[in-house]
Write a structure and sequence with these properties.
The chain is mostly helical and 569 residues long. The protein contains 21 helices and six strands. The protein has helices at residues 2-10, 16-46, 54-62, 64-87, 100-107, 109-134, 154-176, 191-237, 254-283, 295-303, 309-325, 327-334, 344-366, 393-397, 423-438, 440-445, 447-456, 460-480, 490-508, 524-543, 555-565; strands at residues 140-141, 151-152, 384-385, 509-511, 518-520, 552-553. A hairpin with a 6-residue loop joins strand 4 and strand 5. Helix 2 packs antiparallel against helix 4 and helix 8 crosses helix 9 (254-283). The chain starts with a helix and ends with a helix. The relative contact order is 0.09.
Length: 569
Amino acid sequence: MAYQNARNQAVSSADFANLAHSILQQRFVRACVYEVPFAYVVAVVANLNLRRGVFSLAYALVSPRTLAYTIFAYIAGIACLAIHAHTFHVTRAAHTSHFPRLQRLLRRPQATVTVVTTYVVLSWLMLMVHVRMFGGARAWLYPEGAYGPPQLNPAWLASWLFATCVGVAYGATLVTDERLQLAFPMLEQSRIHALKDRLPMSFSRAFGFATSVLCKFWLAYFVVGWGVYRSVCGVLARIFSTSVYSVASPLFSASMLAFWLHTFVLVVLTWEFAHQLFEIIVTEPTRINELSVDRNLCLLSGLRHTESPLIQHLAFQELYRVTAFSMEQRVEILTDIDRTSGTMWTQISAECIAVISAATGQLKAQAPAEKPKPAVPIKKGDAVDVRAGGAPMADILQGRKPAVPAPPPAPAPVDLFGVEAQGLEKYVLTTLRDMLVRSPLGQRILRSHRAQSKSVFANFQQQVWAIRSLIRLVECSITEDKYGVVQTDIARVLETLFAYLIELERSAMQSDGSGAYNVQTANRQTVAMVQVVRNALYVFTTSFYEYLEALKLPPQQAKQLQAFANFSA
């Protein structure tokens, strides 16, 4: 239905954003429909009584309580889908303070309050359902008989306080752990396979989260619970007559603790199912350009769309899918040369290069100032031939490895503490330095560089798609580029990738100023991006191995490419 509605608009529209909005709306409706079986599964698990054996499962499948629980679980799931649709994001913001988790909570306070409040209300709703269906603590007790003053049940108060803590903790965890940021699955995975892989994780995460919150709540309430209970009773006593005498503590009731754990494992499981369903539905490849009459122009409009980061991410995801798996559309991109604004390859490659260049520029801006080096005069028009690893491809296939140049000698280490520090003194200073670097305090001191690098990888997935799509088009141009539009831009593509690789490798190691002791401050994203760029350059080298000698490249690029041709980069 989503694609049929979008196809009706595609006859007169090549706007990627309009088609994407139509499909995303239809996908949200589908997510609401898919939420029904998830709510039913949670309801069956809630009504399952293992003591009755197989008959318990048969009864739980058709029980009226299962139907009622399904309705409330579905309402909770729909509320989770709605709050995710309102607060999700696809880019990762940089953290400039030493307390990144706190900064995430305060960056968008209105969204944080909305998320936390929603999950607190849902937690109260599901607690009320469990109390009505499976029994629970009553709000009032009459320990002195029906004619005495009512007493607030401490178990009832603790249950609602625990429900509040679960809602606050889950909502805050979504924000602090950046789980509201969409995680795009692999393109090769279907929707069913992606969900199948996440279901076991949802069960384990729900049980682990509920158990962790229960343990922390037990410890905290053990310390302040009596004071909270007396304070609440004191407030209620001003409204009507009540007793403040507690007959028992819910913290030492095994049945009450089991009830809490059973209730909120199912509650968190309902939230987890909704979270995983929304993420998979939204991040699935759209195939929007196939719905348009001019699919190349439609795809290009999505790459240039800057108003919505999600639309632009979906466009780059679609570009990677096309370049990786659709030979027909690749050929159509490479042979589309009758455009007033340039060939389609030129325009699409420009968008990919712009994404890579923007990240390179941010890394350069963060680089420390270096002393200028004397420039080596190079005659204009000079070019250097790249040899295929020092040997023809035939020799490589026959098992004869090309000669690999010997690595340059390592520089002599520089004494960081001067000649005065010798023997035991030097050993102690070195040990203290290493302990400081590896300690939490040292990590916080060095976190400023790590926070700056995160701003570069705010659109990490988009950069990966841009690099892989660009190098895939270059790779396939050997056989699919009929007009040679790609060959004239190979030097520009290599220059962009090498510039980014140089900045990434420089950013991965931060020198202390003397050039002798390097402190590793790169996070996993930096290391991963280095591997992405290197893999792309190796793909280019292996694809053009027989043609490397024919390439005329600037000296710097030729030197860098020679290392990849020698398989020594």
